[in-house]
Design brief:
It is a single chain. The chain is mainly α. 67% of the residues lie in helices and 0% in strands. It has one domain: MazG-like (Helix Hairpins, Orthogonal Bundle). The chain contains four helices and no strands. α1 packs across α3 and α2 packs antiparallel against α3. The longest helix has 21 residues.
């Protein structure tokens, strides 16, 4: 089972191909920086959905997230993550192999810590 749907991966690549060179040369330092900032901005938008500021705590004391807004922002995060893969020509199999290696390392650490 793939952790990245091949159709979604290719759909996003097609969008990137249409926009190639709009910001900077593909895979350049400027392109990489721009994509990282875009991804970070989208993650920040997910954070802002919670209303995390203590001085703005809701009257009932409970922070809530609108599920539709969450899914919309997480979709943006995923799209910008895929953009990073694309500009560096990282394929699905290559990424999944790297992910598997990192996952094994994390499991080893958790076991070493008794978790």
């Amino acid at each position: 089972m793939s952790i990245i749907d091949p159709q979604i991966y290719e759909d996003q690549r097609a969008i990137q191909d249409r926009c190639e060179g709009r910001y900077a040369a593909k895979g350049s330092a400027d392109d990489h920086s721009m994509r990282c900032l875009q991804l970070a901005n989208e993650v920040h938008e997910v954070l802002n959905l919670m209303g995390w500021k203590p001085h703005r705590k809701p009257e009932d004391g409970e922070f809530t997230i609108d599920r539709d807004e969450l899914l919309d922002e997480l979709s943006d995060v995923y799209k910008f993550f895929l953009n990073l893969l694309h500009i560096h020509n990282v394929g699905i199999n290559e990424f999944e192999e790297a992910y598997g290696k990192k996952h094994a390392i994390v499991l080893e650490r958790l076991e070493a810590e008794g978790l």
